[in-house]
Amino acid sequence: MTRQRVSIREALELIMDAMPLQPAERVPLFSAVGRTLRETIMAERDQPPFDRVTMDGIALAHRDWAAGTRSFRVAGTQGAGAAPLALDAPGACIEVMTGSALPAGADCIVPVERLSLEDGVASIEAAYEPRPGTSIHRRGSDYRQGAVLLAPGARLGAAQIAVATLGGSADIAVSRQPRIAIASTGDELVPPGAAVGPASIRASNDRAIEAALRLRGHPVEACALLPDDPAVLRSELGRMLEGCEVLIVSGGVSMGQYDHVPATLTALGVEPVFHKVTQRPGLPLWFGRKGADKVVFALPGNPVSSLVCTVRYVLPALAQALGARAEQPRRVALAEAVEFRPDLSYLLPVVVMWRPDGTYHAVPRPTNTSGDFVALAGTDGFVELPRGQDLFPAGYVAPFFRW
Ligand code: AMP
Ligand code: MG
Measured from the CA of 188, which atom of ligand 1 is nearest? Predict the structure, then answer.
């Protein structure tokens, strides 16, 4: 039984229930950026793995300095990556570079700025007082071998990729990307670059949906523009369904005579899960599943609706399919009062503005209709105002969704 007119929350629950977890695959570390981690990364070694020198200078035994020695014989020079030398006698020092291992017998570093080097002797400034442990990053002081550095579900940004190198492996387990296809439907739609007639419309939804997905690191396999013709829809949507796990259709889901999408999908074996969500924009949203591993989002064709539905439903569904750690939406206060009478949740475009004191608030930028998408270009996303309330005072705090 198709559920009708569900709430946003019910819609999300039904979608999440239907979303299968993608299998994991191993990829080279350099191509894992933006992907979702599916293994635990543990430290291959202590970090740092040896007592690490953090300044260019000389390494010496503090007890020699404490005994009054100020000029030290340079017994050797040690760069990063070289096996540690040893102090060979009292009064000796080793020249060391940042990143090198601490020479055996040394327990303190005097930076090169605080000494003069002449004829193999390093003389320390009279005013400089070295302390034991100065400029030494002790082995294991950050964490120990085997410590958990990253847990499954982490999104791999620059910092996480850097940390993943400490697992020591050249490849890494991440979620396989689901294959995603996008179909826009409508006899009026013409792609940019093609000739337009007096009643045609530039197809924008497919590009906008794809952009929203790509910006979150989801590649799109296939994109098609389809007419409102049941036979063509059936063959083309059928073909697209074969080749993807997530199909996103826009247009043709309302009650018009040419709105063939739900019936076509059902005929193709897609089981309808819900139709219509008590929200504006995006009320006609349709969602279905096919077998255990395919889902179909059929979004209303109005450009504002289709983008809002992509961000509110498709993106969280994909994040879950990848096993990403669930993110709570940020919350933001309204800069001014909002009135909304219909008995629907209101997904209201906003600009997030920072105040001079460092706090921020959401300035409403309502669109004239759900077709008025030019206004969206100046906005950051939308807030979700719940159904059952007509007046939202300035300062009202609502969840915020970025485009
Ligand atoms: P529909 O959901 O098919 O009834 O479409 C609702 C409105 O959105 C109509 O005015 C369509 O012309 C418009 N529309 C549908 N699909 C697109 C699209 N891909 N790009 C831009 N506008 C669209
Ligand atoms: Mg249409």
Answer: 12
